[in-house]
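We treat protein structure as text, and this decision shapes the records that our systems exchange. Below, we set out a record of this kind in full and without editing:

***
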Amino acid sequence: MTLSGSLRPISAGVGNSNDQTRRHNLSTILTMLHHGGAQTRAQLTRLSGLNRSTIAALVAELAELGLAYETEPSDSGLVGRPSPIVHANEKIAAITINPDVDAITIGLVGLGGELHKRIRFETASVPSVRETINVVTAVIAGMRAELDTQYRVVGVGMAIPGLVNGRDGTVRLAPHLGWQDVQVAEPFSAALGYPVRIANDAGLATLAESLFGAGRGVQDLVYLNGSASGIGGGVLVGGSMLRGAQGYAAELGHTLVNSAGIRCHCGKIGCLETEVNLGRLLAVLGREGLGPDELDAVLAGALAPDARAEVDRQLDVLALAIGNFISVFNPQVFILGGSLGALYEANPERLRAAVAANAVGTLGEDVRIERAQLRSRLLTVGAAEIVFAGLLGDPAAASPLVE
C-alpha cells in the first residue's frame, strides 16, 4: 500500500535563479540537507545549479528561520578558506505514532532523519483508537518538558497498517486493529495539540527506505514489510510512488499464494500474509511476542527442526511471491523490512535461489534483494516524512526561531 493524499516529490530537484522562485530555492536547499545530510556551501552550489551568492543568501535565510545552521569544517590542509558546512536543524522535530496489534510505538525524529527517541509500549490487547490516544498522550506528557525546551515540534505523523485516507485523516480499514471508517487525525490532534497527518505504514516505510536506506538513488523498487499486522508493500516506479486510482495501490500482502490455504482477514483464501506470517513463526518458536530486534537474535541462533522447517517453508512461499512481483514490476531492487527482513537474514541464499527460479526468464537474477537498512527505525523515520513534507515544500512559511 502506498501513500494516499498529496506529498511533494521525494527528490530535491534543482534551483532556479528567478526572483519569483525564491521559495522554491529555499525548498530545494532544505530538502538537499534533509535527505542528503550536512553539506558544504560549495557542494550545495554544485548540486543545486545556483551561484555562490544565492546559496549564501538562502543559507542565511534558513538559519534565520531556525531550519539550518553552519559549522566550520575541520582543518583539511587545503589552501584558502574552506567552505562552511551547512546542516539541517535536527531540533526541528516530528512526533511519530505507529499502532500495531501488540504495541504502540512513539518516536521523535528531527530534520535530517535524526532519530532522537523511540518508545515501544507493549499492549495486552489490540488497541482501539481511544486507547491509543490515551497511551500516546501519557507518553508525550512525560516528554513535555524535554519537548518544550529542546525541540520545535512541527506536527505528528501516524503510520497505520491499513487503508488510509490521508486527505481527510480517516482510516478506511485497518483489519488487524479493527479500525474501520474512523476519524483518526482530528481526535489525536485535539489530544496532543499538534497538527496530525496519517498514511499507510508500508507506504511510509517505502518512502523512508528510498530516501535514507537501501533504496537511496533507486528509481524502481518494491518494498515488502512484515509485522504482527500482516504484510504491506510499496512500489516506486520511475522515482514516483505507485498510488492507484483511489490511492490504495500495492496491497501486496493479499496476493494469492495458496488456493488451499487459510482464510485471511480480508475474506480471501491463501493470501501471502496468511502463509508468510509472524504469528505462525512465533508459535513454532514457542514465543508469544518479540520486538523487531529480538526476532533477529532468535532466528540467528540454533533452531529446533520444526522451527527450521517453518522458516524454510515461509522463505519458499515468500520467494514465490517475490518472483511474481519482479515479473510484474521489473524493479532494480527488492527490499524486505520488519519481520520479513529477519526471515530473509535467516537464510538469504535459499531465498535468492528460489526467487531466481520463480521469476520470468532471467529477471530474478538481475534484481538486488536487500534488507531494509533502517531496520526498527523504518516506520518512525517514514512517519516523520509526512510531517516534514509541508515544511520542506515551503520553508519560508515557517515562523522564525525565537531564542
Q: What stands out?
A: The chain has three domains: 19-88, 92-204+378-397, 216-373. Confidence is low (pLDDT under 50) at residues 1-9.
